[in-house]
Amino acid sequence: MPLVVAVVLFSSLAAAAQPAPAGDSPRAPAAAQSPRTTPPPEVEHLLPLPSQRPAADLGLFLKDTSLCIFPFVKESAAPTDSAYLEAVQKTFYDVARQSPLLESVKLLPAATHCDPHDGACIAEAAVGPRCQHVLVGSSAAKGNGFVLSVRIFQVAKQAVVPGSEVEQVLETDRESDVEAWAQGQACRALQVHCEGRLQVDADRRDMNIYLDNRPMQRTYASPETFVVMPGVHEVRVSVGQRTSLAKKVAVRRDQTAELISARQTEKGGLPLWTAAELSGQSPERSSDVHEGSWTRPIGFTAAGVGIAALGVGLFEGLHAKSLRNDAQSHFAANGNTYLASDISTLHSARDAANVGNVLTVAGAALAIAGGVLVFAF
Fold first, then answer.
1. Under 8 Å CB-to-CB from 165, ≥6 apart: which residues?
2. How far apart are CA 224 and CA 304, in angstroms?
3. I need a surface site. Which of 40, 44, 173, 333 has the fewest CB within 10 A?
């Protein structure tokens, strides 16, 4: 059963911690940092982010300040959340150390105890290490998953930084998915340039590739390689009006995600497989599928209408013959004289014959044309 992870997380927050010695963590060397004026990467639109941006620009609060990582708190017993929690902590801590916004990143000792929502206690614990901001996180079991709650406190005001919390639900049953999602959030929020690579092996040139429902330009390399922000991305392919089911792929920074293979089956299906699902084997080549063209459905329609018209035309012809026979019988019975009713019957026979002839000719023509469109094209 998929694990549902509801993460209460600010889009521009700093990092979560992993067990490590307390003390300052210097920023990455200048060569590895992005300039402070560098905007977030342009590939961010490929990352599944919260639909609403935070109300405040956290760069205004975090720029040239120290950030302390408060020990994450387990608010309720949840036997399955430890690995996920540690992955998120490690991800945010590592990314924060590379952020051009922060002067330093500190890890408060595990002996520090505070309620994760108690601003006064957290501010008091941060006075000694001289923290200007404190990142606080907690986990709580919920259903088959758990909730990660992360916020940033401004020590001077003993309050959460305005606009620093948003909520997003992430459905996953793999730790790698949580880690990739956390990397994308942290890199974007802390203005750290991050990218990963996603590869798709689509062996037909008529396959269109979509990433997070966005069409991607193909180079027809084998495989296609796309540079994206870290995160959990959705891949699908289409051929004409047919489309595959979406496949979720975790892309982590500075790594190439497992290969996605797309093939076409004899019946027109478009399955996608990960390398793990194929156990390292290469899938067979795609099969050709004759999808037909617009001529076939139009041909069948024309042939059907033609046959129907032909049937009505024949009926009208037989009806006209019957009316003429009735008029002739009355003519002979009345001493070779037509009565007024017989004249009317002859007129009806003539009209029925005309309609029958037109429908017979038109119906035959439509049936022949429809057959040509169906079988010749």
1. 8, 9, 10, 54, 151
2. 46
3. 333
